[in-house]
Amino acid sequence: MSCLYIVATPIGNLDDITLRAIQVLKAVDVVAAEDTRHSGSLLSHFGISTRLVSYRDHNEVAATEELMNLLAAGQSVALVSDAGTPLISDPGYRLVQSALAAGVTVIPIPGASAVIAALSVSGMATDRFSFEGFLPAKQVARQGQLRNLGNDSRTLVFYEAPHRIKASLKDVVLILGAERQVTLARELTKRFEQVWHGSAAAALAHIETAFIPERGEFVLLIAGQGGEQVAAAHYEAARVMNLLLPEMPPRRAAEIASQLTGENKKVLYALAVQLRQQDKQIQPEGKPPLEL
Ligand code: SAM
Predict the structure, then answer these.
(1) For position 139, which CATH number holds?
(2) Is the pTM of this model over 0.90?
(3) 199 falls within a domain
(4) Which ligand 1 atom lies nearest to the CA of residue 115?
(5) Helix (H) or strand (E) holding 115
(6) Which of 99, 164, 250, 263 has a C-alpha 20 to 30 A away from that of 56?
């Protein structure tokens, strides 16, 4: 029986493709892709020669009809987007809805998604979070959106374009306050990956001095209302750990930092190990990872 597969692809590093994604992309009759040239390179990198058809926002209606005809004729279809998980700030909603309405089995092939990757290293509360997609491009609407979300206690996660990150951070400072904790996750899984944590005002200053360049792809995370104090204590502890680690073993650094900041010793030890690993992170033979 024909199936529609929703296949996640890497968000940068090609090694993040899953074995199952490769198997499915090889086995289906048709791969529907946002940008057939872009996905064509991905497929050929993995030696996949499946027929590609275009499925993007501007042809979504016609393309849905075409793909539904293929499914009705017993063909199997995989949907991919340019990067990450289809339908997550990417096209596919109409196709999945039509397939379900027609009784077609829709199967997820999970993998990378920038929202989850960023959240997992944000250090912010992950038990409850709200993914908000892209903030509005226009300032009045963006400020209104931030105002609406200002009292939300959940971690807020946004996708952001590099040419708008500064403007968005200015509005975060203005509407949510200079001290609201944020994480900027830039170029995840890529050569110039950068994950920065701190106050909204400090993030803005780092963008202005280009310590955090306005280039590449960004996820902006904002600590929920009330979560800042916990986050601030954690960042303070992390800052102390950063100072102590070059001078002493991780266990001792964790003990002292715990006494100074009140943060849990075990949590700090885990952080120390993580910081040490980050220091050691080098690419094998100096080669950059393969990227999309
Ligand atoms: N479907 C994708 C997913 O599952 O993550 C998201 C597609 S959306 C059109 C593209 C946005 O995702 C970018 O503007 C950026 O905000 C975020 N993004 C994608 N890849 C990223 C990466 N490697 N590092 C940071 N953010 C990324």
Answers:
(1) 3.30.950.10
(2) no
(3) yes
(4) 5
(5) helix 114-120
(6) 164
